[in-house]
Design goal:
Layout: E1 8-10, H1 17-27, H2 34-42, E2 46-52, E3 58-67, E4 70-78, H3 87-101, E5 106-112, H4 116-124, E6 128-137, E7 142-150
Parallel strand pairs: 4-5
Antiparallel strand pairs: 1-2, 2-3, 3-4, 5-7, 6-7
């Protein structure tokens, strides 16, 4: 299923930070702090795609850092009640389109070994497992699968 027409995809702006902070707490055992999210607004290497409803409430987002021709996806989050609607896949797809337009050749991300829905989403978007980072995550301690994709 693809996101419906009532969702809006846009770049990150300061008005998104409050909702993003709440989503971080909802989605991650070690959430990014408000300050870390605010720092992304001025980070010249950071790129974000934010998904909002028609009232401007953030329902999901994806962040990345692009340096020269490589990129790391830093976070992907969708509010639990909005999952299984294709929003995560749409966020990844839109970010990859931006990266390709910017000349990014390769993209990496980490995902919890137990997070099969996210792994499946990334695989649908063309990512493959390229490595493992032992004990990368905290609370609970867990390995990360390193997934990568070539764009050019």
């Amino acid at each position: 299923m693809t996101p419906n027409d009532e969702l809006i995809f846009s770049p990150l702006c300061p008005t998104h930070i409050d909702d993003m902070e709440a989503i971080e707490v909802e989605c991650f055992s070690v959430p990014w702090s408000r300050e870390a999210l605010e720092d992304e607004l001025d980070n010249p290497y950071a790129r974000y795609v934010v998904c909002t409803d028609t009232e401007g409430n953030v329902v999901g987002y994806i962040g990345s850092r692009i340096v020269l021709d490589s990129a790391d996806i830093t976070n992907v989050a969708v509010r639990p009640r909005y999952r299984r609607r294709g929003i995560g896949f749409e966020l990844v797809t839109r970010m990859l389109e931006q990266m390709k337009a910017l000349g990014v050749a390769s993209v990496l991300l980490e995902v919890r070994e137990s997070n099969l829905p996210a792994q499946n989403c990334y695989a649908r978007a063309g990512f493959a497992v390229v490595g493992r980072r032992k004990n990368y995550y905290e609370l609970p301690k867990e390995d990360a699968l390193l997934m990568g994709r070539e764009l050019l």
